[in-house]
Amino acid sequence: MARMMSRRQLLAAGMTGLAGAALAGCGTSHSTALTQATATAELPMATATPVVRPVSMVITGDVMLGRSVNQQMVAAGASGTFPFTRTGDFLRGFDLTVGNLECVVSKIGSPIPGKPFTFRADPLGFARLQGAGYDIVSVANNHSGDYGPDAFADMLSHLPQYGITPIGGGLNHDVAHTPVVVERFGTRIGFVAACDIDPPTFAATATQPGHAWLDDAGLRHDVPFARSQSDFLIVFTHWGIEYHLNYNALQQELAHLAIDLGADLVVGAHPHDIEPNEIYHGKPIIYSLGNFVFDEMYDSESHGNILTLHVHGNTLLDWKLAPITIDTTTGAPYLA
Question: Sign of torsion, CA 7 9 14 18?
């Protein structure tokens, strides 16, 4: 199980270290410093009362930073905000921001032979994701392995350097299937992510990096363990049929199984279109959010949803879908 400190916690830890360094460098005499140290040791440590409150969260659909999106991102330079210029403020307004990263971000590797669409973004994409407020990205999809396992592993190693935790992928099978659990304001929010879209060779093995494969056996193993570690559990799936406006029987079967095993919410991506929602045993299933950042998408594929929710402990207080539209000339989204 992976755990993360929030950015606020990291900042607080950094400020504590800076304060200690400042004291060590001041011109205090040895006798005075000893007296201060002794006095400090005799005083009880002050502990801040943890803030416990509902957690706000936002989840986006497919974020594809390759092709022309990559070209425009690089052209905008290091100080640019494209493709999140019109959505970054919204995404940063939540305690936790999550999305599906539908490409590999790396400078290494070669396109997988015979695959018709391969997506790779410049490492500048890491800063763009960070600037937009992303805390977690799913790498369990059919494009994160487009440039081979070494490029995939390279991406995994860089994401945490930007404060972003990958879910649904790892350097081997066991790591890829390990849930991520994030604690925010007293609530432990767990994530399981998996993909059942070809090619199956992108799935992690005992010795090869890759994503978690989505199937009955994987859910039966991953969800109960994640449930035991979490107050609220989200299963993020990559599934379905591209450009279909409705979910199929397999999607529904897997979604129901995930909830029967302990998931509190199931949310999906991949079809490039919005698909209907369902409530099963009181738990929401959002079969497809559609696209978020994606070029060469028109008509219904240029419209997507952002899922927003508030969670407190094991209770889903509310959820709603905020519509977005993709600028078909750039591939960048804006709030509809």
Answer: positive
Residue with tokens 């396109």: 111
CA dihedral 59, 155, 144, 191 (to 10 degrees): -40
C-alpha count within 13 angstroms, C-beta hemisphere, residue 9: 13
Q: Domain ranges for the chain, please list them.
A: 55-335
Token look-up 């591209």 returns 242
Dihedral Cα 25, 28, 33, 35, nearest 10 deg = -160
Q: Which two structure tokens, joined as six digits, stand for 309?
A: 């929710």
Write the DSSP symbol of residue 73. H
CATH of segment(s) 55-335:
3.60.21.10
Q: What does the pLDDT look like over 235-252, one tens digit per residue?
A: 999 999 999 999 999 999
Residue 326 CA to residue 272 CA, distance in Å, equals: 12
pLDDT tens digits for 287-297? 999 999 999 99
